[in-house]
Amino acid sequence: MPRPLVILTLCCALGLVSGCADGLRNPFSNDPLTGGADVSTSRLLGVPTPAGMQRFTSHGYETAGTAGSEGLEVLRGDADPGFAAQIMYTGLQGQGWQLRLALRKSGRAVYVYERGQSLAVLTLHRETLGTVLEIWTGARLPDGAALPAPAAPEAGASNPAAEDAGSYTPGAGGMDTTPKPGATVRTWGGGNSGSGGLEERNL
Predict the structure, then answer these.
(1) Pairing of β 118-127 and β 130-139
(2) Which end is more exposed in the chain, N or C (fewer Cβ atoms within 10 Å of the end residue's Cβ)?
(3) For residue 170, is pLDDT > 50?
């Protein structure tokens, strides 16, 4: 067997071994998008999707909003990103959606559509196994709207580490390190408070 062929075979084999090359994707690794179902129409937008796309419900959600359905829909297929964007544009334009933003950069694209009080954000990016189309929909926020707060933890759930740690107080300039009632405070060096001694607090 010629030496170049042996070297080429060895390099390919090493590239597939996990951990040998961080920059190479192992084609035999687990695919995070599994359990897709063939789809021809977007559930959130009600417009035709590019042929050959599959919906992955495990990576999306849908809820009733003030301006209709809100949520995330994840689709993947073999369609070219530019072709997929054109199919979605044609379908959305036919239902009264107006394109407000279109940005593309090396295989990735984002499109923002508006219809009345509703917004739709479509992101497209190319992967080894096809094109991923993410569809986000929701109501347009009024001018001056505040950033929505993160979801509250479930009732009954507690985080002992967070309870023991100091809590942040807005305007106080940092973490609140005031000892809790019953906490142990020890001081070394300097008999008077504020004389430069070392103080240990059990927080």
Answers:
(1) antiparallel
(2) N
(3) no
